[in-house]
Amino acid sequence: MGKFEIEVAVCSFLVIIIVLCIRLIFALPSLKHHQIKTSPLKSIEDKNVMVLLGSGGHTGEMIRILSGSNTIPKVHNLHFITSSGDSTSLIHLKKFINETNIETKTESLELPRARKVGEGFVSSIISTVKSILFTFIQFSKLKIKPDVLIVNGPGTSVPICYYFFLLKFLGIGKTKIIYIESLARVNDLSLSGKLCYLISDRFIVQWNKLQKRYPNSECYGIMV
Amino acid sequence: MKMASIFVTTGATVTFKRLIEITLDSKFISHVQNLGYTKLIVQYGSQPDGETLFKSLLEKLDIKSSLVDNYITGTTLYGFQISGFPFTNDVKSIMESSDLIISHAGTGSILDSLRLQKPLIVVINTNLMNNHQLEIANELENSNHLIKSSSEISDLLNKIDKIQITTLVSLPKPDFSVIDNILQEI
Questions:
Q1: Which domain of life is it from (chain A) (predicted)?
Q2: Class of domain B4-185
Q3: Given A40, A183, A202, which is nearest B136 (Cβ)?
Q4: ipTM score here?
Q5: Fewest CB within a 10 Å sphere: which of A40, A121, B88, B138?
């Protein structure tokens, strides 16, 4: 390869990087500081809303949050996602559905966790990438593109949030992510929270001092 | 004589053995009986080691137990009743009829107790690594919603004495319009 070809290769590579960066800036919700608040075109009732139920404590908190909502029962297209084998979440969900008398669909998917407890930094990056790919396959089979995704921080949130962010980055998705950090996180975000902080459209924490550490987050006190 | 009962919950998934041990201790039982409590109900968790531990501690207390309505139940020589069960989907009704709750630091159990406005002592499991459960217990103790205890029996007994004379602050109800507003705006 001659000098000219190398220069062309380097230049095109740089152009691609710059284009990707610009696209990223436009896609990242956390960088939209001067967003004009207008009411959305489609009301929430007509939107496709997806809720992820994680393990034990996370499911408990999510059900508490949703059971107080007046809007959730009015949503026509409400989907719950649970990890296959998580029977406790299904019991909680069944109870919630019976009590609120809502119409909803539930999908049990085999969802990989982004990381194992106690895993090192590098290997946790590798397993995160793996789990994103796996989730990608699972969700492309599911063929649901939610307008709104609500998660509250189980390990399974991370690949799912990145999957829908990736679709947005590629211009083929428009899922808005609402991330609600667990009440148990008082002084710092969970690893899931840190990883989803920049790609979430609304990032809610439940303690004021945590909000002060993360300026893009919002705090309205205890929500559960 | 009042029929006051104590509910001990260790959480459903990981057995908090130390909490079962210190509450099924003769020192603990005579102490709470002197305070006027007549009954102890223990949720020892779904793991088999919880039930084994519970049964062996009853034996150590010389209590003959039998199975009544899925509860392992027995009574001490002094008429103090102890029952135990692994797991229930309706923990709230048991909490509702209890006068004191002694719980592990799980968010779910803490919230269930506080939402029912029950006096709550949270026992910290120091064996758990990466203990952010301690943070929430600290925070809620600072704002006087509960009393925190170590897993030493002497500390727990002190905290039980303390909670008799403490007026705890009830946890403010969550504002559910918050989630509705977020959903409407997005």
A1: Eukaryota
A2: alpha beta
A3: A183
A4: 0.85
A5: A121
